[in-house]
């Protein structure tokens, strides 16, 4: 086992604030990826009154060996009240920016796109000033489902590539690197106003050059934002950490990414895909992309 270095120490959270956020989540029977995936930033984010909501779960239809979300339970039917409950949590917490993600629901014809749309619409209704980021699965290449999500006009469309192509079979066996890039490319074609985003874990045996190639591939599909963070083994049954990447290397990737033209590069040991996600509001001011009204209902199927 590789010893955890000093730079991965996490500051003690303000438990009073953490408790108040948890109280809202429990009262409304909501899941967060912060808890389900054992995120190391849970104390900081809950202390700031933010959370990444996990919908359609907590059971997942895929069994990625790096992820701590449960895949052994059978997925349940979608709860039609979940969007309203999520929107009420956003209202109670006074969030200026909310991240909505999900487990993989390969058992659903649309991969859960309709539930994403319902959540976006409910948040808009209850908290019209709140900006919205959706962190979505690959939808099994259902591009009409992708168009459906984008028609609800989230400000940010996030889909993680997670690792380098060479490691996909071991790290993300039910995923496909090319499919993830294609999703981001098509998102840009359907909704040029949306900020597209992707994230990568390191410490699983990849090389620095491979990470930079992933970054280049993301820029080739006009991805705006990239996050790079250290993988941490959630339990002994998950993939082990191969190495702990130094802060200097993370700083190097940030410099490389900025040179490639990303609008935002978040690269540090504790970075996760939703870490400091609210900073997209700065990008919206610096790089305004007005959303057309009415929003075009064109599907990708009609574009290819």
How many beta strands in the DSSP annotation? Answer: 8
CATH secondary-structure class: Alpha Beta
**How many domain units?**
1
Gross geometry: globular
Run of helices and strands = HEHHEHEHEHEHHEHEHEH
Distance between the termini: 49 Å
Radius of gyration: 18 Å
Broad structural category: alpha/beta
Number of helices: 11
Strand order of the biggest β-sheet: 1-2-3-4-5-6-7-8
Question: What's the pLDDT, averaged over the residues?
Answer: 88
Contiguous low-pLDDT stretches (5 residues minimum) are: 299-304
Architecture per CATH nomenclature, i.e. the level-2 architecture: Alpha-Beta Barrel
Sheet bearing the most strands, described?
Answer: 8 strands, mixed
SS strand fraction: 5-15%
Percent helix among the residues? 25-40%
CATH topology, which one? TIM Barrel
Topology summary:
Blueprint: H1 15-27, E1 31-32, H2 33-36, H3 42-47, E2 52-55, H4 82-93, E3 97-102, H5 113-126, E4 131-135, H6 143-151, E5 156-158, H7 168-171, H8 177-190, E6 195-202, H9 208-220, E7 225-230, H10 247-260, E8 264-267, H11 280-286
Parallel strand pairs: 2-3, 3-4, 4-5, 5-6, 6-7, 7-8
Antiparallel strand pairs: 1-2
Helix pairs in contact: 4-5, 5-6, 6-8, 9-10
Describe this structure in words.
The radius of gyration is 18 Å and the shape is globular. 36% of the residues lie in helices and 12% in strands. It is of the alpha/beta class and 304 residues long. The longest helix has 14 residues, at 113-126. The chain has a single domain, classed as TIM Barrel. It has helices spanning 15-27, 33-36, 42-47, 82-93, 113-126, 143-151, 168-171, 177-190, 208-220, 247-260, 280-286, and strands at residues 31-32, 52-55, 97-102, 131-135, 156-158, 195-202, 225-230, 264-267. An eight-stranded mixed β-sheet has the order 1-2-3-4-5-6-7-8, with helices on both faces. α9 (208-220) packs parallel to α10 (247-260).
